[in-house]
Structures are given as structure tokens and as C-alpha cells.
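Module 6 notes. Inverse folding takes a fixed backbone as the condition and produces residue identities as the prediction. Think of it as a translation problem where the source language is geometry and the target language is the twenty amino acids. Below is one complete input and output pair. Work through it position by position during the lab.
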């Protein structure tokens, strides 16, 4: 994780800093109304759980040759 003297120069670096400070705290809550089409009940992720998911996707992109400086677009389905 980052020290207080480190420069935070990317969204990912800011996220890592937050994971270090708030690991077990809630990061994302999706209420049951938004998940009822594919899940029974709400969905919650802590900072640590989201870090694991983000890092897994980051690794896949890195294996595909993408890295710092590249831009990735996502198309998300509205529910």
C-alpha cells in the first residue's frame, strides 16, 4: 500500500490507498431491487473484496498487453 509520502497519480493508486485504509469497510452495496433478476437479496463488496476482483481483471488486461497509458471502454447494461 502507499505511504503518506507517496504521490497518488492514478485512479488505481487512489483505490489501493483506500483499500489500505478501509479494507473491511463497505465499498459497494447493490440493493435487492437491483439484483432480483439474477440474485436473491442484496449484493455487498468490501474494499478488500473489490480489490481482489479489480486485480484479477487488471491481470487479464496485462496478459493481453494492456497497461498504464492504455484506455479501456466498458459497455454496461442499464437495469
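Target side of the pair, the amino acids:
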Amino acid at each position: 500500500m502507499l505511504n503518506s509520502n507517496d504521490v497518488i497519480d492514478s485512479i488505481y493508486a487512489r483505490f489501493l490507498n483506500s483499500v489500505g485504509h478501509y479494507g473491511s469497510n463497505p465499498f459497494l452495496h447493490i440493493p435487492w431491487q437491483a439484483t432480483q433478476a439474477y440474485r436473491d437479496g442484496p449484493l455487498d463488496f468490501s474494499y478488500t473484496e473489490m480489490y481482489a476482483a479489480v486485480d484479477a481483471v487488471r491481470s487479464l488486461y496485462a496478459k493481453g498487453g494492456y497497461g498504464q497509458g492504455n484506455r479501456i471502454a466498458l459497455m454496461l447494461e442499464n437495469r
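Reference fact for the lab report: The mean pLDDT is 88.
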